[in-house]
Amino acid sequence: MAILLGVDTGGTYTDAVLIDEATDRVIGSAKSLTTRPDLARGIAGAVDGVLADAGMAPDDVAMVSLSTTLVTNALVEGQGGRVALVFIGFDRGEVARAGLEEALGGDPVILVAGGHGHSGEERVPLDTGALKDGIAGLGPEITGIAVAAQFATRNPAHEQAARAIIREMTGLPVTCSHELANSLGGPRRALTAVLNARLIGLIDGLIAACRAELDARGITAQLMVVRGDGALISADLARERPIETILSGPAASIAGASWLTGERDAIVSDIGGTTTDICLLRDGRPAIDPAGARVGPYRTMVEAVAMRTTGLGGDSDVHLRGGLEGGLVLGPRRVMPVSLLAMAHPRLVHRALDEALSSGMSGEGAGRFAVPLWSGQPGGLDPREAAVAERLAAGPQPLQAVLRNRVEGPALDRLVSRGQVILSGLTPSDAGHVLGLLSDWDDLAAEKALRLFAMKRTGAGNRLAEDATSMAQMIVDRLTDQTVSCLLEAAFAEDGRDWAMPVDELARHPLTRAGLDGHRGVIETDLRLGVPVVGLGASAPSYYGAVGTRLGTRMILPAHAGVANAIGAVVGQLSVHAEGSVSAAGAGVFLSHTREAPIRFADRDAAIRATEALLLAEATARARLAGIGDMSSQTGIEIREVEVEGSPMFIEARIRVTVQGRPRIAEG
CATH classification of 574-661 is 1.10.1420, yes or no? Predict the structure, then answer.
C-alpha cells in the first residue's frame, strides 16, 4: 500500500499526517511546536510523532508533501530578506505604483535603460554598464535580487541578460518577473518579483530543513510543496518560485476541508496562530482569484485560491484601542504567547510578571518580552539595532530591559520585521488557558499576564477589567467579533449582489449588526449566513462555536480539523502550466511570445497553433521533471478583439497549457 506523509509548517505548530492512499483514510497525526529559527526540530518532532502514532516505518512512506503558512505570514507581518530591484526601461515614478514602493520598504532600486516595445521589439539597448555599477554598489545585507523589464512578457531578453550578469557578479538568487507572470503590468510584475526575491531564503530554509529530517530518518520519497492554487509542485521549483507558495497553507486547508467533510457549498474558515484564512467552497471546489493572490496589502500576479487572509489568530497581539471607551483590538502582528515563553523560560517570565503586578501599574511594555531568533548575532545592523541586539545576546529579556529610550523602539521593530526577533505578549491563546479552553502551556503565567493587562485604564480612566477571568472573556469575545466580521466580509463579497457599498463597511453596518441581533422594534431585522461554516485549525473547537451561533448557521468542526492543512497537502494533484501569447504587430503580422524571442507568422491561427505546441512541450518537459505520472493536459485560449467599423479586429490571444496528474509513487 502507498502511504502518503503530509507536513504543514505553521506559525505556531508543525503538523503531520499519514494517509493510506488505497483507503483514503487518516492513519496517524501529530503536532509539534514550530521552532524558529531552526525549523528542523519542529519538523522532526511532527514526523517522529506521526510515524509512532501510526506504527509505520520510515521506508513505508511513498510520498511527502509540504504546505506552509510561513510565506503568507511573512508577507502579512512584513518580514523577509533585504532585496534590490533592477528596474529596466522604467522611470522613478513607476516605483510608486501598484504598492511596489511599500513592498520595497526602502530597499534599493537600480534604474537601468533598456526594455522592449509592445510587440517585443527592442526599444533601447540594455545599459550593461549602469547595471554593473548599480550591482557593485549594493551592500552585503542584500539576500536576493528582482529583475523587471518593460514588456518582458513579450520579449524576456533583457531580463535574461541582466540575470546572467548579476549571477556572475554576486552569486545571489535572481528572480525574473517574466517567469512569474504573463501579464503586461510592469509595476505589478515587479512587485511580484520583489516579494519572490524577499522570500527565497525563507522557503529554501524550510525545504532544506524538511529534506534533511526526512533523509535522517530514511524517508527517501520525493518531496512536493503545495502551491497557492492547491496543486502540488516539486520542491526544486518551490525554491525558485517561493511566491507561488503564498496561500499554500490556506489552499491546502481548503483541499483538506473538502476531503474531510464532503461539503459542496460552505465557507471555510481556518484559524492559525497568525492569520484567519477564509474561502468559499462552491460545488466542492475553491474559486481561483482572477486578479491574483492578495495577501495583506499586496496584490500579486500569482494564481491562487480566492482567499481572504486577515491578521487574526490565536497568537495575535492584544492591544488597547484609543479613545474614552477603550476596548480591545487583536492583530495583525503575531507575538509569542506569554504562556508559551514561560514553558522555556519560567524564571524570567514569572519574575518579570510578579514585579509588574507588585507595582500595581500596567505601564507601557509591562508583561511583554523580546525573544532573539538568531543562532549568532546578525550582521549589517545600524548602531541602534546593534545596541538592542547586544542586550538580547544572552536570550529573551523583558521589553523594558531591552529598550533604554524611545528612539530604540523603531530599531527593535526593524529586527522584528526582518524575522530576527519576535515579541512575546498577551494573546487569545493565553486567554484560552485561563478559561480552560486550552491546556498546553503555562496556565499560571497566562493568568498573571491577564491580571496585569486588566489593570490598564481606558481613556475615561476606568480599569479595563476586574480580574483575569473577565479579561480573558473580553479577549475571546473580541476574537469572536472580529472573526464574524471577516466571515461577513467574505460572504458579502461572494454573494453576487451589487451592494453599492464596500464589503468591510457593510459587514460592520448598524443594520447588519441589528440583523445578527434579531432586532425587534418598529423595524424587525434578521440576518444569517446561507451556507454552513467549516471551522479548521487547532483552536477552532475552542472559539468557533460562538461564531456559528452569532451568524445563525451550522458550524462544522470535523475530526482532524487541527491538521487539515497537512491532509490537504497530500490529496492534491501535481500541476504545471506554461503561458504565452500571440499579438498583432501590423497588417498580416502576428508574433508568438513565449519564454524565447518572439516568432513572426503571417497567419493568426498558425501563430496560435505554434504557440500552443511550444507551451505544451515546455509544460510536458517540466511535468516529467516534477515527477508527474499519468499526464493529462488542457489548453485555454482567450482571444481579445475590438470592433472597428462593424468588423472584429484581433488584438491578442493569451494561451495557457496545463499538464497535471498524480505524482509517480514508488512502492515497495
Answer: no
